[in-house]
């Protein structure tokens, strides 16, 4: 090998043989911008949240699915100016393909439903908890990824689907200790806006873009949107009419504005009646200003909000009957919601409802008195694990006091010590940390003692 290679090897290997370490640039320990590491205590919170989401989904008969986090960019190139498509985490891969980290799950779901359409038994009730991405200029240091609980029902054209979704969302809120006084769900139908736009002579192909613009009104002043609305051909009088209908907050107002025969009024009446049957009416608020920002919604829309008005939307959803056709497929009615993992945690934290229990540590900590007994301690640990008992085996000599401190910290119930004299007699010492009760037991009886579990 050339002198340079030897020299490099010496430099790198030197440290291993106790020589002076080569000058190594220190690794940047932060994860990529907008992303976060999930350490065990964070993972326990995430598992708790996802556990409730999964529990509700399965109690409502939903099945879990998943899809690649990476999709063809073409899945998201809708020309409706939505924020979610303007912040795509997209790039060209090494094969020259335009791809994107998914900003939402619904398009992937639509692709999967189209792919399996012929073999699917409708209705399809599927859920997933995907990590979704956006590439936002880090102007505000906001996150670029979050996990979002998705619940969707395909093949049901009536509002019974939306009622089921709202029922599931409320069930989750109740499971984590939130009440209708804490959280409301604003409900509307894009049909309200569509019927008004129709009456104003606005062509149907402008309705979606109008909804996306109108959705921006709760984030920016009318002046900032009026120009774009005018570009869509909405005169001032029409915009005024739109703003009037968006003020409506009760069915009476909707029926007066649109007429009793209005299909939008009818579907809202039906939805609120079913909500009564679910016992969730207290959670729902009719609010005709809600249109949601996703272009593909075609009917009902809804969003969960904190009634103190401090936080951004907790969750949002609606009906999207035309999505498959927009992908060149055959129409199939669909409704669903997305529920992010960020705002809900802020809300639960504000309300003191985050779970407090320490993580479920091992049931037993096992250690040998000294290094000679590491093999014995390993035998004991293996025998307990074979009986289904979780064991944290101490892997290197440590003071007994430190082992007990560790056991308390990880929430273990038992400490099993392997000491020389007892081991010679085929015994170990088992201490119950709940009672401080300590006894010497033959190795073969430790598992049954622990599995009996009752406090002595
Ligand atoms: N769509 C989306 C993706 C990622 C985050 Br963080 N927020 C919204």
What labels would you give this structure?
456 residues; alpha+beta; nine-stranded mixed sheet; five-stranded mixed sheet; 18% strand; elongated; binds 6-bromopyridin-3-amine
* Structural classification: alpha+beta
**Measured on Cα atoms, how large is the radius of gyration?**
30 Å
Q: Count of helical segments?
A: 17
How would you sum up the global shape?
A: elongated
Secondary-structure map:
Blueprint: H1 3-16, H2 40-59, E1 63-64, E2 70-72, H3 83-86, E3 89-92, E4 98-101, H4 106-116, E5 124-128, E6 131-133, E7 145-154, H5 160-175, E8 183-189, H6 190-199, H7 207-215, H8 222-231, H9 236-246, H10 251-258, H11 263-278, E9 284-286, E10 300-306, E11 315-319, H12 323-326, E12 334-340, H13 343-350, E13 364-368, H14 374-386, E14 391-393, H15 400-409, E15 414-418, H16 420-424, E16 427-432, E17 438-442, H17 443-452
Parallel strand pairs: 1-5, 8-9, 13-14, 13-15
Antiparallel strand pairs: 2-4, 3-4, 5-7, 6-7, 7-12, 8-10, 10-11, 11-12, 15-16, 16-17
The structure holds 6-bromopyridin-3-amine.
Structure write-up:
With 456 residues, the chain is an alpha+beta fold. Helix content is 39%, strand content 18%. It contains 17 helices and 17 strands. Strands 1, 5, 6, 7, 8, 9, 10, 11 and 12 form a nine-stranded mixed β-sheet that branches. A five-stranded mixed β-sheet has the order 14-13-15-16-17, sandwiched between helices. The structure holds 6-bromopyridin-3-amine (4JN). The site of 6-bromopyridin-3-amine (4JN) has 10 residues, from β6 and β7. The site of 6-bromopyridin-3-amine has 10 residues, from β6 and β7.
């Amino acid at each position: 090998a050339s002198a340079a290679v030897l020299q490099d090897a010496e430099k790198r290997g030197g440290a291993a043989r106790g020589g002076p370490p080569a000058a190594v640039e220190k690794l940047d320990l932060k994860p990529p911008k907008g992303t976060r590491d999930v350490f065990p205590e964070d993972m326990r919170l995430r598992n708790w949240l996802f556990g409730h989401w999964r529990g509700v989904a399965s109690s409502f008969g939903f099945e879990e699915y998943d899809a690649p986090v990476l999709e063809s960019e073409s899945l998201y190139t809708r020309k409706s100016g939505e924020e979610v498509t303007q912040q795509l985490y997209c790039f060209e891969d090494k094969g020259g393909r335009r791809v994107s980290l998914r900003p939402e799950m619904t398009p992937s779901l639509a692709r999967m439903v189209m792919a399996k359409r012929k073999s699917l038994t409708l209705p399809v009730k599927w859920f997933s908890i995907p990590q979704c991405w956006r590439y936002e200029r880090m102007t505000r240091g906001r996150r670029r990824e979050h996990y979002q609980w998705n619940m969707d029902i395909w093949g049901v054209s009536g509002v019974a689907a939306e009622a089921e979704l709202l029922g599931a969302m409320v069930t989750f809120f109740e499971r984590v200790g939130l009440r209708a006084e804490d959280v409301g769900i604003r409900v509307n139908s894009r049909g309200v806006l569509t019927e008004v736009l129709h009456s104003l002579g606005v062509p149907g192909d402008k309705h979606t873009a109008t909804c996306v613009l109108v959705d921006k009104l709760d984030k920016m002043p009318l002046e900032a949107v009026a120009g774009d609305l005018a570009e869509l051909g909405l005169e001032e009088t029409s915009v005024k009419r739109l703003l009037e209908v968006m003020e409506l907050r009760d069915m009476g107002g909707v029926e007066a504005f649109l007429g009793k025969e209005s299909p939008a009024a009818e579907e809202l009446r039906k939805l609120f009646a079913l909500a009564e049957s679910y016992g969730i009416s207290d959670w729902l608020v009719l609010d005709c200003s809600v249109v949601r920002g996703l272009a593909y919604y075609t009917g009902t829309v809804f969003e969960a909000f904190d009634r103190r008005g401090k936080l951004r939307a907790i969750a949002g959803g609606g009906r999207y009957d035309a999505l498959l056709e927009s992908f060149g497929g055959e129409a199939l009615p669909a409704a669903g919601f997305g529920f992010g993992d960020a705002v809900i945690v802020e809300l639960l934290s504000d309300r003191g409802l985050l779970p407090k229990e320490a993580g479920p540590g091992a049931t037993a900590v096992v250690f040998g008195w000294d290094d000679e007994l590491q093999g014995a301690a390993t035998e004991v640990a293996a025998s307990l694990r074979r009986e289904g008992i979780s064991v944290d085996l101490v892997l290197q000599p440590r003071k007994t006091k430190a082992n007990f401190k560790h056991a308390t910290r990880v929430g273990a119930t038992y400490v099993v010590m392997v000491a020389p004299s007892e081991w010679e007699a085929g015994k170990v010492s088992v201490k119950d940390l709940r009672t401080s009760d300590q006894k010497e037991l033959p190795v073969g009886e430790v598992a049954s003692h622990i599995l009996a579990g009752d406090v002595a």
